[in-house]
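Quick check before the chapter quiz. The format below is the same one you will see on the exam, so make sure you can read both the input and the output lines.
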Amino acid sequence: MSPLMVVWTALSSLGANKLRTGLALLGVVIGVAAVISTMSVGRGAQQAITANIEALGTNLLFIRPDSGAATLTLEDASALLDPTLASSVAGVAPETSTSAQLVAGNENTFTQVRGVTPEYELVRNFPVASGQFISQFLVENRSEVVVLGSQVAETLFGFRDPVGQTLRINGRLFIVIGVLESKGGSGLGSQDNQVLVPITTAYYRLASQRTTQGEISVQTINVQVRDGGDIDDAIREISTVLRLRHRITDQDDFTVSSQEETIETLEETQETFVIFLGAIAGISLLVGGIGIMNIMLMSVTERTREIGIRKAMGAKRRDIQFQFVTEATLLSLGGGGVGVLLGLAVSLLLDGRSLGGQNFQTAFSGDIAFLALGVSAAIGLFFGIYPAVRASRLHPIDALRYE
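Here is the expected output.
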């Protein structure tokens, strides 16, 4: 029998019981659609987070204490601007942070308060949408002023202009001098859900912390490198300056990490998460495959006499096997094709939608579709083999006697 004739016979057999075939297809459709939609959402989230980090610039370095001890100071940050010892450094922005309660009128929120210097605006790419950023004059005078993230501004002031308004941070009165441009995202970890104050104000008014030498400590020193290609040189220069200042002869009491390392680590973590989501959704495909095997076993039972007649007319075992495997594969591929279209529709529907305060961003790609189709075809083939072997082993005489 020619392959075309085998396919035609398979389609005719499947069409003989449309309801049962449709139910078997439904299991595969749901499985493939679940795999595609979940992986699209996962990859969309991965791309969104990576894009937000890359927007800050890939020529950034982050210096943090190696342990929980306060080992970095404002003086360390200033020393890194020495063009002789650190020629690769273009800008330095120290910061410290604490959590605090913000109250404005009848509204309040609990968020992250960062103490920063004027350089933070350019080094970390945080331009203001209205008002002004923190100036050196405000830092030197420990002024009680605050620049709000867009999400905090909306929470506390709604659609009113916050600039010039007052609020309380941990009970202290502050004046709003600016609102940052929105970075996107939601939740407590969003860059829009934070406020900035002068670093000296954060230390003396909100959360003071000194080093063992009595100097003002910082939690992070953000360093902007002059050229992305000078990252390694910048790390060596920074390490040399800090070792000299801290008089280190053994193990460093600080760590230097780059933006690229952060992105790579995040991508690896997100990829694992996406695969995990796909594996969970793949269980639906497995259930669909079991449904296909059940249908094919029923088909073998119902078509026992047909199998006996075909064997009596000279059909070989491999012909019978090929026939039933073809039917199972057509079932899985048909369901897979419809599932791909359904998964694509769900991905497009969720893209840009806000559900439960969370903005979804999806990323549909051809490799996901081909993977889902390939897995569905493999499942159909796998679960179709046993019914096909069982059908091919029927003895012609016993099959013809079957009622």
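If your answer matched, good. The chain has two domains: 3-53+264-401, 67-252.
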